[in-house]
Design a protein that fits this description.
- The chain is an all-alpha fold and 143 residues long.
- It is built from five helices and no strands.
């Protein structure tokens, strides 16, 4: 019996399936390696499991757990919101002042020469980007 010719679609499908198999094998090996590395560290960032018995117990003792301090949670949430709003206002005002001074400086440079205005604008932006980069890298690298 003569063998049936292999269609191009079947060849592509088999190559695709082989590529997926290789990728999944690599991902599994990579995941197992990462799991071994991560297991060396303790993490407090976990998801609590709220099963039925835990929720029942929690609801049974809800008043004794939260009772008197519920109002304190709302007060603290309000104060945190006010504080964060104040910080955002200060940041917005600072950015506005820096932007205004930049454009005032560029305006003065344009009155002298157009190319000088472009150069001042360029240098000012590069300087701000450099400051932001240095702060992100050296002051708060986890940002």
């Amino acid at each position: 019996v003569a063998s049936a010719p292999v269609r191009a679609v079947d060849q592509i499908r088999s190559l695709h399936e082989h590529a997926i198999e290789v990728m999944e094998t690599h991902q599994t090996e990579h995941w197992q390696h990462e799991k071994k590395l991560i297991s060396k560290f303790e993490s407090l960032d976990y998801v609590k499991i709220y099963n039925t018995s835990y929720r029942t117990e929690l609801n049974a003792h809800y008043e004794s757990v939260t009772g008197d301090y519920e109002w304190l949670r709302w007060v603290m949430s309000f104060l945190m919101g006010v504080f964060i709003g104040f910080i955002a206002f200060i940041a917005h005002t600072g950015i506005q002042k820096i932007s205004d001074s930049k454009f005032d400086l560029v305006n003065e440079a344009i009155k002298i020469h157009l190319a000088l205005g472009f150069f001042v604008y360029f240098v000012f932006n590069v300087g701000l980007a450099a400051i932001a980069s240095l702060l992100a890298v050296y002051y708060e690298p986890t940002a």
